[in-house]
Write a structure and sequence with these properties.
By secondary structure, this protein is α+β, with helices and mostly antiparallel strands. It contains 17 helices and 25 strands. Helices cover 33% and strands 24% of the residues. α9 runs parallel beside α10. The longest helix has 18 residues, at 170-187.
Length: 580
Amino acid sequence: MNGTTIQVLDERTVNQIAAGEVVERPASVVKELVENAIDAGARLVRVEVTSERNHVTAVRVVDDGAGMGRADAVLAFKEHATSKISRIDDLDRVLTLGFRGEALPSIASVSDVTLVTRRRGGGEIAGTRVAIRGGNAPEVAEVGAPEGTSVEVRDLFFNTPARRKFLKSLHTELAHIHGVIERTALARPEISFRLLHNGRERIATHATDDLKETVASLFGTAVAKDLVPVSLKTPLVQVAGYISTPALSRADPYQVFLSINARPISSLQIVRAIKEGYGTLLPKDRFPVAFLSIGINGDLVDVNVHPTKKLVRLSHEKEIYGAIAGAVRTALGGKDLSAAGAKPVFPVFSLPAQPPRIPAAGVAESRAPFTLTDRRLRQSELPLAGAERNLLPEIEVIGQLDAMYIVGSAEGRSLVVIDQHAAHERVLYEQAQEKAGPGSQELIVPVLVTFSPQESELAREALPALAEEGFVLEEFGPSTYAVNAIPVVLGKLEEPEVIRDLVSALVRESPADPVGKREAVLRRVACRGAIKAGDRLSPEQMRRLLDQLARTKNPYTCPHGRPTIVTFSPDELAAMFRRT
């Protein structure tokens, strides 16, 4: 057989392949161009996004950085051409955000790019304009231009339609762009950032040496007021920034913002270290809001892990994570955290016996722990289709364990343990599925919820799905929504954070949980409306909950697939006690 089957790919094809790693969506373009602007010493970065017919059609990033001469402007589109490093050893101490030399050629290979630049303080009268479409040969010309650089990207993925069809809705793509600007502004508060969509300003931060001012610009003064400063300096690591009091928490760690050496990064290990620092101040299923800037010697950080540069590797991981946890613990120590509230402590195990007689003055107090539970159970007494069925065995309630589990006896032989939260969650979930009874209830006084710019953009898209399940929201000023009605199953809306958690669950794409938006709302509504672990139940309330669970179609698992009931047969109990 003559010839070869292995071929050397041409530069244009190589760039389009590289674009698949570097340029995932319009937000990827914004990230790369903003990072270039920061590396050029910009003090003001302006991002302009244009959309038509529910699609992002153009992205333009303008900066007042160093700018470029004609030769550098052309060379910037050459693959692996970079001013950030010159040899492999430089990766051990790279301080710039970019260094691969892949961004501009990758973007230019799948879009229509126009770069206009003039060097700052270079004395040139004219600037340089470089235009490239789909990786073709550049068109270069002299133009009048201010000092600095602007890069406009149009028609993204025009020559790779398979990539374009995987883009999400306009609101989702805009939310990703908002997220890029939020993370970058928090990592570099000394730089001013502007984000405009179709000429309307969405984000505006001012250069400051106080990170808290940037936090207030992005998340509002209410969040900024509920923050505790964190400060740590050791020979190995420096930590500075803010963490929330336990009163301000989220259902997941999406508002833990981290940067290492002024580079926005993602790190589950650091999130765990922060959570560890809170100890028992936060429930296991809640996460703080945090804005932390971490400084580590460049020799201990490997930023050359992935083309997006969001992940890093660290040396001395155990010591660094331990120091971060310690910094959080120290910051919270001695602070007034009373805003978080404290649940009353109840006996570990309670029997369904007649309670002891108490003075009349204490009667109201003795019923207080059961009042909220009673209200929640009333919300789930709506009839279900097939309610005459009973898929559970006859269970006699014995008592409650650790204010989390109902302990009972099944048909006088087996021991059963019921997770009270999971059981009630199943009841509410099936009722929400059937929409039994009225779907929503109007609030006498609307509840105001303030979102970050990214959340606000995502909320706009989530409104129809929320409305379908009984939430009625309307915009009430920049990034603020008024909640006018909620699902009946939620009862009284005690926490505005319920809305935030629901929206945050809808708006972030999670490959591990690929459910539709309606299903996501149903699960969250059921979870937030259900009896909680730690809620004390009276004997009558335990019985009512089991009766409600028995009438569901699937009483043995919660909507997330976790078991609601664990049964120990006589043989299993005998084996545990070595009676066999």
